[in-house]
Structures are given as structure tokens and as C-alpha cells.
Amino acid sequence: MNRSFSELNRYGLKRILMRANLQQHRKMSDIRFRLYTLGAGIAGEQKVLDYLKNLRFGFPFRVLWDIRLEVSSRQYVQIDLLVLTPTRAIIYEVKNIGGRLRFEDNPARLDKVDADGFISDSFECPVLQLEEEMAGLRQWLEMNRISSTVDGAVVMTANPVFEQAKKDGRVFRLREIRRHLATERTGPSGRSGPQIEELAKLFMRAHEPYFPFPLRNQFNIQENELYWGPICSDCGELVIRKSERTWICRACGTRCKNVFEETLLDWFLLKGRLISSEDIRHLFSLADRRSASWIIRRFELDRIQDSRLVLYSWDYSALRLPYRLNE
Ligand SMILES: [Zn+2]
Fold first, then answer.
1. How far apart are CA 24 and CA 222, in angstroms?
2. Which tops the pLDDT comparison, 317 or 62?
3. Residues facing 124 on adjacent strands
């Protein structure tokens, strides 16, 4: 398992912003905000992963991230970071929120306050989130007849200042993870290294990634609200085709090489899950059918025959990308 789905989501949001930029779309601030929180989330998780990578203890442990498990019909538990030790399954709910923070009740939330004490932002209570995830994980373990203690903590990775300590001691800074993990009670009853690995495989097999695509649905953007044709990968402006594979940006003059691939990937990430060869020809103003089949082959699209209509779909879970994503 890798980080690719959150990365793809992030890439898709950037591309939607580029396309929205052409028309100064009403949803731009929503998309920017989502992009910001997603980026902060990925950065926070990365900090914890890097920290965990360098820890050594006298017992084996295994780290899994971005795990999504079905706990009952269409009910899922989403776990940022899961650490499997000989006796515990530990959830670390990562929050990359800095500044002055205050836990509040009724309703449970985390408020960010400015220098004058006014609330500048309000978040869902991460302790409550953690408790829900722990309950979900317990349920999943029971369903699968796996015995393990479920433990967990909220890990704040952006060094916030708390106005008051959270009483139950479940909110950590990054460096407290070491102490928390070190409380492991090792003994003959715990799992061995290979048994932990076995359990990790079980989690990975059960993992059901969440596909947010096409992203426009999340923001309630209609098909006709965005420009879908080829755009410059640098500035998002319109490009003109100069030769078979080269497109030149009208605004910044960049020579764009992956225009076919980027445009088609945008279709699948942002616009819809199916495309016809007619759509492809229209998208790139292609004169003949052969050019469309070239790109269908290059993308390894799956052919779906619906009576007389032939449509193509992209296998999202396989993540076969025809080029490296620009980050
Ligand atoms: Zn450009």
C-alpha cells in the first residue's frame, strides 16, 4: 500500500483549480481550502511516519497508514496510522494544526484562538474522532475473531499551544509516541514478528480505498462549468498543438509534452468515470479515429460495451499512470 490515493486526490484538486481558474469559478475557495487541509494532513502523517521509521524497541512492530475498513454494511472506519505491536493495535489520529488551541464541550470541538482570545477556526474534536475509530477497529477485530487490545492517541504534529491540558491524556506531541509505544508489555502471550506481519497482510487485504473521483461531484460542479480541453501544465492557460506530441502555451510559451495524458487523466479524476472515442476526438479536436485509439491503448483503458455504444473506463485501483505526476 502506498500514499498514491491521497496524492492523486491532491493532484486532482490542483488540476480542478487550474481549470477553474480559466473561468474564475465560484467554488475556487472551497477547493483551495480542501487542498490546504489535504496537504496539511499528508504532511502531518509524513512527519509521524518519518518519526516511527527511526524508532527501535526490544519488540517487533509494524506501521500501516490510510486504512479503511468496512465495519458493517457500508459503514467504514478510516484510520490515518495504525501501529501493530505484539499486544496492541494502536491508532494515531494525526492533526497538523498549529497555533493556540482549546478543547471545548457541548458540542465537543477543538477551537483555534487568535492572540486576542477570539475563535479563528473550529474543528471536529479529534479525541471524539479517535474514540469512534477505536470503537470501529474493535468491532472489525471482533468480526474477524482477532484478539488484540485497541489503543490510541491524537498526535499533534504542528506544535500547538494548548490553553488547557486535555484531562484524559490522549493528546500527544510527536515525540511522546516513543514513550507510548515503550509501555508495551512483552511476554509469551504476544504476537511474534511473523504473526504481526500476518495480521498486517489481513488489514491490507481488507482495506477498501475510498475513491473520491470524479472530484467535481464533491463540489457540486456541473460538467459545463469547467473547460475540459488541453491546458498548459505550468500556468493552466490554453495550449496550441504544434506537432504530433508538442503543444505550446499561448500565455507562457511552455512546450507541454504530456498534454494528451494530462487531459485524459483530468477527465477521469475530475469529470467522469467513462469516456467514448467520440469524446476523445472531440476533446482534442482529432480528425481521425486512429489517433483516439492510440491514446486509449496508451492509457490501457478498459473497454465496456453497452449495447451498441462502446465506452472506456480507467482502472482507478490499479493506478496505471502514463506519466509521472508533477507535484
Ligand atoms: Zn502556460
1. 14
2. 62
3. 109
> Of 275 and 327, which is predicted with more confidence?
275
Cell of 186: 512483552
Long-range contacts formed by 253-261: CB under 8 A, 24+ apart: 256/230, 256/232, 258/233, 258/322, 258/323, 259/230, 259/231, 259/233, 260/230, 260/284, 260/295, 260/298, 261/298, 261/299, 261/322, 261/323
Write down the pLDDT at residue 137. Answer: 97
Residue pLDDT, tens place only, 128-170: 999 999 999 999 999 999 999 999 999 999 988 888 766 677 8
Q: Pairing relation of β-strands 149-156 and 171-173?
A: parallel
Please tell me the distance between residue 234's alpha carbon and the centre of ligand 1 in angstroms. 5
Per-residue model confidence (pLDDT) at position 24: 67
51: burial class by Cβ within 10 Å (0-12, 13-18, 19+)?
middle
Output the CA angle 127-130-133, nearest 5 degrees. 155
Q: How far apart are CA 18 and CA 31, in angstroms?
A: 11
Q: Which three cell numbers stand for residue 244?
A: 504530433
Give me the phi and psi of 304, to 5 degrees please. Answer: -120, 120
Q: Helix or strand or coil: residue 224?
A: helix
How many angstroms is it from 289 CA to the middle of ligand 1?
29
| Cα–ligand 1 centroid distance for 325 (angstroms) | 17
Which helix (DSSP H) or strand (DSSP E) does residue 36 occupy? helix 28-53
Residue 264 Cα to ligand 1 midpoint, Å, equals: 18
